[in-house]
Amino acid sequence: MYAIVEIAGQQFKVSKDLKVYVNRLTNEEGSKVSFDKVYLLDDNGTITIGAPAIEGASVEAKVLQHLKGDKVIVFKKKRRKGYKKRNGHRQYLTQIVIEGITGVGVKQAAPKKAAVEATTEEVEAPKKKVAKAKKEDTQE
Fold it and tell me: Which of 126, 124, 70 lies closest to 93, judged by CA?
């Protein structure tokens, strides 16, 4: 079972017991967090898609730690002008572990078999016969 959920402005594909690094959350270490913006839910092949989010579905997680990411160097240069700028930063991150996914949504993305057969009949159009021009033999 997995879900696509929005956490701190970004979308993540999460499943149970998965550790994820997200942008810094305001919650304290060891606290539990619940995310309600679940956009897609897959339960052993049964796919539920929200419009835009699935009502009643949520993802529960636990905040493990707050940390900083790797340093990112930003280097700007204009050749032959003597212009060089070096800058960098470290992103503030939060490590969370997904403890559970709960879903109540009933919408299914897979179309019914009768609907699929009806659409294939409409797509198949009669094929036109195209007469090929015969090449005449020329004798000299």
Answer: 70
